[in-house]
Specification:
The chain is of the alpha+beta class and 904 residues long. The chain is 48% helix and 21% strand. Helix 15 packs antiparallel against helix 16 and helix 19 packs across helix 20. It is flat, with a radius of gyration of 61 Å.
Length: 904
């Protein structure tokens, strides 16, 4: 029988105990202790700074309240200085009146001032309100003898009041202020009295006016500071005369006692803190005395009220400081706890890293060996053992470097002397890093050895067989064309450089540049695979038809080159060129297509046509372009004139770009004349270029360059916009014809450009006529017809220019309804001869009429030509017979003259 007992003895969980021990150990570490110390200092600093800020805020709160109280007291004192000065003015007038009157005695004064006339006078001078009494006159015995508010005068005596006694005794100031009980109306009243003297300075009585405390309190209420604040009016002897908020029990009470007396609150302008004798509360008090009267304004507020905002700030600061201290404490605890966890995690991570390191080492693509200073193996991965097929029982930590090499030799993966190899490696690796490639069977192994601190080295064995093969393949691709296996441009230049060096010793050679004619059309119509197959077969034929010493290369695209060391002169080069052309012209079978093609060849012979490689290549290229310009399917030798022509073309292209930037173009306008009415019905805008040094340059010279370089798009856009802006100034029945280049026409945004120009210039679309040639329809007539339809949709008229001179096709006239056909000058210039082109012109006119098109004859220079065209039914003419193309200003004058002549 098994028994078990359990008692609650406070045993600690081992994991918890371990955690506490870990934290305790960490606290003994200097960084953790420093961290905790910094945390405690931070909490202490928070407490100290908070205490200082709270004290500073309290001081500032009290100072602000004291400043506010002092400012209020000062402003009220200034207010009452002005108000009471105005108030006492009437009394001063009575005093002056009595002094100036001829009064011999006090009895005479009593008799004169006790009349109804005196009452009316006083009433006129004083207009009293409920808070301000009228003027009152007392005789030398203190008896009321007249006033401004009652008649007959009530019985009243002030003989017992101290201010009367002081005035009678002559010891009172000019104006006395005293708070007394009002025997007539009841309640308190503030009396302001002045002494009355006769002309000899003898005392005859007193004149007074009274204010109720309510008069002061009414104004004090309007400037109240709010809360527990109070404003009071005191006599300088300390008696309270008025207060807001009103304190009825305290009015008339003398507060000049205790601390208030010691502080001199009613004697000078001060701001202090006292216990209020009115309500017993601690108050901040500020006093300000009036300048001429014994009156003191006192403003006060409770200390609690002054510190109300400070208490809110204090609560907020203490809360923030408490939260900050708690946050710091929590962070310190969390950091300490986290450090404990990290300690355990670090141990686990080290074990995991060790495992991963072993995994990484054993899965490297290289074999890895680490030897110590005594040449003993420390680390060896599985890749090294498998690379040479070694035994793990032999190659293991502790075995020597020599044992490993000997084991390799026994298995056949090492050839050579074991001791000699080991000694050489050890001596070399002790000095610097070594790297060498060794052959093992049919593989190439790169061995790198790097010394390590303390002695020993790390060796890596990498199989670089595939890398070497890839490098050889890359080297081949860097010098050979991947499609045809011919040398590429890079290897071609190297070979040509060697041949030119030989030519310096007198050995001439020919360079042939070969361009396959119409290759682009084969690519476009049959596809790139067919074109690539054609290039492969051309490359094979070129190899077969050149000599053994000759070099064939593909330069790119459909361009090839032959460096013919066997062709030392023009005769041999001619034979080689003819042989190449004959070979290329033979039919081809390419992916099921039966093809035939031809080539244009340019020939330059070194060193006569260039001893420099770039010069020779350029000259051969110029000769090839000359062959292409000469109709293709032939060859041309380089001639110096070709370079001059190319240079002139480049200069003209540069000048053309400058003309675009500088606005060097002009537009001339040639009239279109109706053959029936002889009226100008329109004009054709013709571009002119006035070169700064060469003068006028023919469009036939610069337009082809502009089309080849793409500059025609910018030039054509400018021409269209400028001509339309000019045409807006003409009569509404004058049309404008503008030529559109085939290059412009291939731009998909042509219709958008035309619409934009019409919109910006305001020219109606019906007045614009765009002239196109048949060339725009040859390459891609579907796209061309789409553009023509877009232009027609804008309302623009379309004219077919140079009809019959190019690849004319009547199907164009059937597929698109042109508005006009222009008859080229080639048909007009010999129309009046016996074997002229009358029948051709008549046929064109009849075709146009049947398709509802008009016709315009170009180049009309004689009246005979005009008459024949009119008889054949042609619609319009243009030419020198009527007017050449003229500038815009002259064309406007021509229009005006023509209109005037026809009107006459």
């Amino acid at each position: 029988m098994r028994t078990s007992s359990h008692s609650d003895t406070g045993d600690t969980d081992p994991s918890a105990l371990s955690e506490r021990i870990t934290i305790s150990n960490m606290l003994n570490h200097r960084p953790v202790a420093l961290l905790m110390g910094c945390g405690l200092l931070l909490i202490t600093a928070i407490a100290v700074v908070t205490t200082m800020i709270v004290g500073d805020f309290r001081t500032k709160a009290l100072q602000n309240s004291e400043r506010e109280l002092a400012n209020t007291a000062m402003l009220l004192a200034h207010h009452y200085n002005r108000e009471l000065e105005d108030f006492l003015t009437i009394q001063a007038e009575v005093v002056a009146l009595v002094r100036q009157a001829q009064i011999d005695s006090a009895d005479a004064f009593s008799g004169q001032m006790a009349t109804i006339k005196a009452h009316e006078m006083l009433r006129a001078k004083a207009g009293a309100t409920a808070e301000i009494s009228g003027l009152a006159i007392f005789n030398d015995r203190g008896t009321l003898i007249n006033n401004s508010s009652h008649w007959p005068v009530p019985e009243l005596s002030i003989a017992e009041h101290s201010y009367f006694k002081a005035h009678k005794a002559g010891i009172a100031p000019r104006t006395t202020v005293e708070l007394v009980q009002n025997t007539l109306a009841g309640g308190w009243t503030i009396v302001l009295a002045q002494r009355l003297n006769n002309a000899r300075g003898e005392f005859v009585g007193v004149v007074s006016r009274s204010l109720t405390p309510a008069h002061f309190e009414y104004f004090l209420a309007s400037v109240s500071l709010g809360g527990d604040s109070a404003i009071s009016i005191h006599h300088s002897n300390g008696m309270l005369m008025a207060r807001y908020p009103h304190a009825d029990d305290s009015i008339g009470r003398n507060l000049r006692s205790g601390k208030m007396a010691r502080l001199g609150l009613f004697e000078s302008n001060i701001t202090t803190q006292v216990t209020s004798p009115v309500d017993g509360r601690e108050r901040l008090v500020s006093s300000y005395a009036l300048a001429t009267l014994p009156i003191v304004v006192v403003t006060a507020t409770t200390t609690d009220e002054a510190l109300a905002a400070w208490r809110k700030q204090t609560r907020l600061l203490i809360s923030a400081a408490t939260v900050s201290a708690l946050v710091v404490t929590i962070i310190l605890l969390l950091i300490t706890r986290q450090l404990g966890k990290q300690h355990h995690a670090t141990q686990a991570r080290l074990a995991l890293d060790k495992q991963r390191l072993n995994t990484a080492i054993n899965n490297m693509s290289q074999g890895l060996l680490l030897f110590d200073a005594s040449q003993r193996l420390v680390v060896c991965n599985q890749r090294y053992i498998k690379m040479y097929g070694l035994s793990p029982e032999i190659v293991k930590p502790g075995c020597s470097f020599r044992d490993i090499v000997a084991h390799r030799k026994a298995l056949g993966s090492f050839n050579g002397d074991v001791d000699e190899y080991c000694n050489s490696i050890v001596q070399a690796v002790m000095v610097e890093k070594t790297s060498a490639v060794h052959g093992s069977h049919d593989r190439s192994i790169q061995i790198s050895s790097v010394p390590v601190p303390g002695g020993g080295w790390v060796a890596t064995h990498e199989d670089i067989t595939e890398r070497i093969r890839d490098s050889e393949k890359i080297a081949y691709l860097a010098h050979y064309d991947s499609l045809t296996d011919l040398p590429n441009r890079s290897l071609f230049r190297q070979r040509l450089e060697r041949e030119l060096q030989r030519s310096q010793g007198g050995a001439a050679c020919a360079l042939l540049y070969i361009d396959i004619d119409e290759f682009k059309s084969i690519n476009d119509t049959l596809g790139h695979p067919t074109g690539d197959e054609l290039l492969k077969q051309v490359a094979v034929r070129l190899r077969e038809c050149v000599g053994a010493s000759d070099f064939v290369a593909r330069l790119g695209g459909d361009e090839f080159a032959v460096i013919a060391a066997s062709a030392a002169d023009s005769d041999q080069a001619t034979l080689l060129a003819e042989r190449i052309l004959q070979t290329i012209r033979a039919p081809y079978q390419c992916l099921g297509h039966h093809l035939s093609t031809d080539a244009s060849i340019g020939i330059a012979i070194a060193p006569g046509d260039g001893a420099d490689i770039d010069q020779l290549i350029k000259n051969a290229d110029l000769a090839m372009y000359s062959a292409k310009a000469g109709g293709r399917r032939t060859f041309r030798f380089f001639e110096p004139a070709m370079d001059a022509i190319a240079r002139a073309r480049r200069e003209l292209e540069f000048d053309l770009r400058s003309a675009i930037a500088d606005g060097g173009f002009e537009i001339h306008y040639q009239p279109l004349v109706d053959l029936r009415s002889d009226a100008i019905t329109g004009c054709e805008a013709l571009l002119r270029w006035r070169h700064p040094t060469r003068g006028m340059i023919s469009p036939g010279e610069f337009i082809p360059i502009a089309e080849d370089t793409g500059l025609i798009n910018e030039i054509g856009g400018w021409t269209l916009a400028t001509a339309c802006a000019e045409a807006v100034q003409w009569d509404e029945d004058i049309t404008l014809a503008v030529n559109i280049s085939p290059v412009q026409f291939r731009q998909p945004t042509l219709a958008l450009l035309v619409a934009s120009v019409l919109g910006s210039t305001g020219l109606p679309a019906r007045r614009l006529e765009l002239e196109v040639t048949e060339a725009v329809l040859i390459h891609d007539d579907d796209a061309a017809l789409t553009t023509l339809n877009l232009l027609r949709a804008l309302g623009v008229r379309i004219s077919l220019d140079d009809f019959g001179t190019g690849y004319s096709s009547l199907s164009y006239l059937q597929r698109f309804p042109f508005d006009k056909i222009k008859i080229d000058r080639a048909f007009v210039e010999n129309i009046d001869t016996t074997e002229g082109s009358t029948a051709i012109v008549e046929a064109v006119v009849n075709i146009a009429a049947s398709r509802r098109m008009t016709t315009t004859a170009e180049g009309v220079e004689t009246a005979r030509q005009r008459d024949i065209l009119r008889a054949l039914g042609c619609s319009q003419m243009q030419g020198w017979l009527f007017s050449p193309a003229v500038p815009a200003a002259k064309f406007r004058m021509l229009l005006a003259e023509h209109r005037g002549t026809r009107a006459a």
